[in-house]
Amino acid sequence: xxxxxxxxxxxxxxxxxxxxxxxxxxxxxxxxxxxxxxxxxxxxxxxxxxxxxxxxxxxxxxxxxxxxxxxxxxxxxxxxxxxxxxxxxxxxxxxxxxxxxxxxxxxxxxxxxxxxxxxxxxxxxxxxxxxxxxxxxxxxx
Amino acid sequence: xxxxxxxxxxxxxxxxxxxxxxxxxxxxxxxxxxxxxxxxxxxxxxxxxxxxxxxxxxxxxxxxxxxxxxxxxxxxxxxxxxxxxxxxxxxxxxxxxxxxxxxxxxxxxxxxxxxxxxxxxxxxxxxxxxxxxxxxxxxxx
DNA sequence: TGTGCAAATGATAACCATTCTCATTCTCAT
DNA sequence: ATGAGAATGAGAATGGTTATCATTTGCACA
Lengths: 141, 141
Ligand SMILES: [Mn+2]
Ligand SMILES: [Mn+2]
Ligand SMILES: [Zn+2]
Ligand SMILES: [Zn+2]
Hints:
Oligomer: homodimer
Number of helices of chain A: 5
Number of strands of chain A: 6
Bound molecules: manganese (II) ion, zinc ion
Strand order of the largest sheet of chain A: 1-3-2
Low-confidence stretches of chain A: none
Distance between the termini of chain A: 42 Å
CATH topology of the largest domain in chain A: Arc Repressor Mutant, subunit A
Number of domains of chain A: 2
Largest interface: A-B, 31 and 31 residues
CATH architecture of the largest domain in chain A: Orthogonal Bundle
């Protein structure tokens, strides 16, 4: 699964909880996970990690650049592996299905707008909230 | 200041707390206010409204279409008068200064992207987090 | 390969924004 | 003016997250 190297090169000791959380992100079919998601998934497979540690590890991984944090409207932070390429999200309001996209035109316009207003961009968040068309989505129609 | 008509046409009784909150939005120089902001401003001018009522009224105004709610990274909801025209925001990470913008190209791209992925857009949120160049901003340079 | 100590963890209390509860007060149609 | 129902205030409760601190663990070094 993991090389302790992954963590040590990030300046983090290779502890069991950290290995488990990182492994979960690498094997889960859902890219975007909340602290509670992770806590529940680990516990349901007998891998007990305290909720406090899950929160701590997520924040550490975020600072180390291993994970990215997102603030969807759900109110809870959602994390995903940082693969180094920025992207934005379309979130289904009915089933929480998330699609990722990158649009060079939107990125360029943002840079231009910030410059016009005299701002230096740190980051941005663009979330499109919508209804998806997945067959199993509760958008009953 | 206000006509009770404003509220009644929105299906809301013209109560004192509601009149005060609406008046505050119309007279404040800062368009974007949190529940705590409103609570503090009202109290510092001797207009006591309970915090629970501030929260209730803000949510009612949002549902009535009088206010719009935003989720900045601060973690707390921020509200502004709904003037009917959608816009997005640039938020200074140092001084919380907010600029509003509307970009037709960005809006058009979002519609197109959502359609490509088979989503029907409900709404979207675009926040650019940046450093501003206000003279009083703690961007010491 | 064992030891020591700093760092990490677990359990739980605390925190903060927000919502709920319910007894009291207010609004407004009559 | 009155009364029924809606709104308010005070504070308890909630949900997500962080802080505290005693105990356990990783790992550099002997
Ligand atoms: Mn993503
Ligand atoms: Mn605005
Ligand atoms: Zn869906
Ligand atoms: Zn600033």
